[in-house]
Design goal:
With 346 residues, this protein is mainly alpha-helical. The chain has one domain. It has a two-stranded antiparallel ribbon. A hairpin with a 2-residue loop joins strand 1 and strand 2. The chain is globular and about 60 Å long.
């Protein structure tokens, strides 16, 4: 099989996988919230409500697609894809497993191992902001415009501490490649702890995780969609599959952020104290590495749901204050200390 065919299969697989995670998360969110609130949750569409995402998809596809009369039509149409496509595309640099050997050919379980993986992720996450802003402004609705402005201020503010947290990982492992970072996290640290970024950078992990929640517009950082103030914020005027692109894009973004968190701070596909490649075959090892990565990713996906239905929403001044007055100073201090320690140990 030619290299371009292998790359095409990986692209199709990862896009399908990202979409599948988004679909399943719509069910998990409802069932988990029902469990936390002592409710039943979806239970009519299929056993345990498993076909509820399918029912939602049919509803969105069959609803009338309305464009407000005074909306900027072209920009109104461009908003949802500008938000959704970057969320899907970020998966390209995420290593979702180690490697698999088929017919003597080694296949890396990653679409593209570029040496600027961090910059690629930050660039695409910045592009997604345009989808919110353009969609909100083009709707010609005060609620939508306010939601778009909130999204802009929030995402730009929290990009800075996220970038600072990422820089500490770059300093530790000396590379921008996510795959190389995962490989360097194998083994142990101080002879006992797993050599994970979480144990080497606990403060960096906390900063990154909080910034990730803000980037994903999840409670307690969902001010751009705050229904008590803005109806549904920047996508108030959207319906049908245009709204579906915003909603699916948000869930795909959750999967991406969970995958990046696993890659940077929790050893990617690796298990602590266990080298699976020594007792598994070339194909079974590749499958096992993917499953390990997915289990770790699933934990952080559930954590997104858990926090949403546990922590109350911030006020907007509290949200901005946390970013500029707490996370950015902590990120700068952490970066300075990390750089100093790295320089002293060289």
């Amino acid at each position: 099989m030619a290299d371009w065919q292998i790359d095409l299969i990986k692209v199709v697989f990862i896009w399908t996988w990202a979409l599948l995670i988004a679909v399943v998360m719509t069910w998990v969110e409802r069932r988990a919230s029902a469990m936390m609130q002592d409710r039943v949750g979806p239970n009519r569409a299929g056993p345990f409500g498993l076909l509820q995402p399918l029912a939602d998809g049919i509803k969105l596809f069959t609803k009338e697609d309305i464009i407000p009369k005074r909306a900027r039509k072209i920009l109104f149409i461009l908003g949802p894809p500008l938000f959704a496509i970057p969320a899907f595309s970020t998966y390209a640099v995420v290593p979702f497993g180690d490697k698999i050997v088929i017919g003597g050919k080694e296949i890396i379980l990653q679409v593209s191992d570029v040496n600027i993986g961090f910059l690629y992720i930050l660039a695409l996450s910045a592009i997604a902001v345009y989808g919110m802003v353009i969609g909100g402004w083009a709707s010609n609705s005060k609620y939508s415009i306010l939601g778009g402005l909130r999204a802009t201020a929030q995402l730009i503010s929290y990009e800075i501490p996220m970038g600072l947290a990422l820089l500490t990982i770059v300093l530790l492992y000396g590379t921008f490649s996510l795959r190389e970072i995962v490989l360097q996290q194998q083994g142990t640290f101080l002879g006992v702890l797993p050599n994970w970024g979480f144990f080497k950078q606990p403060l960096g992990f906390i900063i990154f995780l909080v910034a990730a929640y803000a980037e994903a517009n999840r409670v307690p950082f969902d001010l751009p969609e705050c229904e008590s103030e803005l109806v549904t914020g920047y996508h108030t005027e959207y319906g049908s599959m245009r709204l579906g692109l915003y909603l699916f894009g948000e869930y795909v973004n959750l999967g991406t952020l969970a995958a990046v968190t696993v890659s940077l701070f929790f050893g990617g596909w690796g298990l602590p104290y266990i080298d699976m490649s020594k007792f598994l075959g070339p194909i079974s090892y590749g499958i096992a590495s993917f499953l390990v990565f997915f289990v770790k990713q699933a934990f952080f996906l559930f954590l997104f749901v858990w926090v949403r239905w546990t922590v109350p929403r911030f006020r907007y001044d509290q949200l901005m204050g946390l970013g500029w007055k707490a996370l950015i100073p902590l990120g700068l201090i952490n970066l300075f200390i990390t750089a100093l320690l790295v320089q002293l140990t060289v």
